Amino acid sequence: MGALTTSPALGSDHSVRYLPDETPLPMPPCRLDGSTDAKPARQRASGAVAGRRLFIFGGTIAITAGGAFEMYDVLKVGGVTVLEGMVLALFVVLLAWIAFSFMSSLAGFFVLLRRRQDVLPIDSHGPLPAITGRTAMLLPTYNEDPHHLTARLRAMHESIGETGHAALFDWFLLSDTTDPDIWISEELAFLELQRNCGSGRLYYRHRSDNAARKSGNIAEWVRRFGGAYDCMIILDADSLMSGDTIVRLVHAMEANPQAALIQTLPIVVNARTLFSRLQQFSSRLYGPLIAAGNAWWHVSEGNYWGHNAIIRMKAFAQEAGLPELRGRKPFGGHILSHDFVEAALMRRAGWGIFMAPALGGSFEEVPPSLLDFAARDRRWCQGNLQHLAVLPARGLHWVSRLHLLTGIGSYLTAPLWLLFLLLGILISLQAYFVKPEYFPKGFALFPTWPAQDPVLAAWVFAATMGLLILPKLLAYLVLLTKRAERQAFGGGFRVLAAVMAESLLAALIAPSMMIFQSTAVAEILLGRDAGWQVQRRSDGGIRREEVYRKFAVPSLCGMAMAASAYAVSLPLLLWMSPVIIGLALAIPIGLVTSAPTRMARLFATPEDNLSPAVLTQARELACLPRIEVPGALLALWQNPGLLRAHMESLEPPPRKSQWIDVDLAIARAKIEQSDSFQEVVASLSARETFAVLKHRVALEQVMRMQ
């Protein structure tokens, strides 16, 4: 974490400017029941694009139909019962999901073999192009570590400076932080960043009311400052982009006036635990294949992932204002997974949404443990299920609707898989305990043997697993054709061993994720809101008690499945062993995967072996001594310069309000009853301290105390 340093005092000569002059840009909420009136030229799919989509969907239908026919052959012996009919229906839905993903991966395989990105050509290796437009770099944050946040921001700022285009970029740290100590730490870190960068183009804004979360944070900035910029690049708290990539993205927007958004493919970096190492390796090896295939058939109807993307300001402000959904949470209220919807709304107006999977220079991090991943997934699950209300919106492109449907399906498939397994056990139990009818009603010379074909069932299972595993092998084959990248991974044999190890570990982890996602869907359907939790980005650091408690349900599910299968027959237990083993070992898997791994070298990626300059710089800056805040109020009390800057940044209070801030009222009562500054600090809760920090009069009263 680096050595600890106290918060530096700000001299009276230190000029602080948190925000530039406002340049408002209207951003009205859109209507889901009516499309926009003012539209640029509609982009119609060419014959080539139609052929690509016919390849994807034709292949999906062919694979699904073939699998459904074979599965029917497995079940039809003795007639298809109600339970078997349900299994067949679930199998068709789940196989279609797998086949669709496989066809996109197959398309990506051929695209990468051709080594030509023809959707939106961006030269990623030639000289840097000239750009003219102004771009805002937006970094929304919510209770994140300010030290690492500003380290990444400084690395990107310096990388842009090396391109010679720094004057065309303004940087905004947009805070929705509610923790008072982190808020003041952010201000200190920002002031230190301003001092180190010597730039007047770095800005900081703290929003006192974080309505609509990240989407509301960005929309509020657009309405206040968006008029001064042609484009904006949206970052996440863990995002990192090279200056070279940023400049090429801006040039691509200027060269393609029909484009509203270009999404990069972020590469996962800085993984330390076994779980995050698996995510980093798999996304680095398999991700480009999947992304290339999707970009190939999406063309101008691509998608947006919420960060590491450039957006045309005009298109976003005119078309992507999000409405509030009717009803109560979790389905109603502000749209949580805003990115898919924003892309769909801009495409509805005729703008192009593109992906640049081959650009490079775009990075992100992943949660360090399976539990952290599941917690983030819980929020995403609720946001994606909200899209059920967006699907019927008028005027959406059919591919945009498919993106929304795919996001919904990515979570609904988990309970469907669980139901599929449970029905399989029920069918086996039924066959074991219910006496079969060998001679059905009517005349028959020979008995009917009501038994499924185990050999054919094994072939169907093997073919289904093949559709899941083959994309990984295709990605490996593509890697073998790229000598430099293969060597950067550590060699072909090492990557092959890593693919095998990753596939095995992923198979063990998948059953627990199935239970977590099924639980999340059930909670949402029961009306439970996920809230807005802080994402853990450390090395894991999970207490054993937390692992035992949260993995207890998957473990019990595994034991129940094992007992049910064994009650029927040992072959059924062996047949279901891949799922049962993953569930029964959920607790040890959770412990092992959340700890730093000795297998780091096996799962090493090119960014580990040959770190890009901006990534190296961010890591070095993160190792510098961090500024520690002794407490929000104490830091302001001890640092007059920081206090002055904080006071100047506060938003003016509303003239009239229909509601009373209870936390502020309690805080002011405690202030009146306290005799000293130390007594006030000791008596205020975190929520009350936060209320004081954003209220000028109350804060001045505290600061005057001795």
Automatic annotation (TrEMBL):
Glycosyltransferase 2-like domain residues: 233-456
Residues passing through the membrane, by range: 54-75, 87-113, 411-434, 454-479, 491-509, 574-593
Entry keywords, A to Z: Cell inner membrane, Cell membrane, Glycosyltransferase, Membrane, Transferase, Transmembrane, Transmembrane helix
A biological-process GO annotation: glucan biosynthetic process
EC number per UniProt: 2.4.1.-
Pathway(s): Glycan metabolism; osmoregulated periplasmic glucan (OPG) biosynthesis
Topology with respect to the bilayer: Multi-pass membrane protein
GO MF annotation terms: hexosyltransferase activity
Family matches, as InterPro entries: Glucans_biosynth_gluTrFase_H, Glyco_trans_2-like, Glycosyltr_2/OpgH_subfam, Nucleotide-diphossugar_trans
Compartments, record wording: Cell inner membrane; Cell membrane
Enzyme class: transferase
GO cellular component, one term: plasma membrane
Main localization of the protein described in the UniProt heading: membrane
Family listed: Belongs to the glycosyltransferase 2 family. OpgH subfamily.
Function as written in the Swiss-Prot or TrEMBL entry: Involved in the biosynthesis of osmoregulated periplasmic glucans (OPGs).
NCBIfam families: PRK05454.1-3, PRK05454.2-1, PRK05454.2-5
Protein name stated in the entry: Glucans biosynthesis glucosyltransferase H
Species this protein is from: Bradyrhizobium hipponense
Gene name per UniProt: mdoH
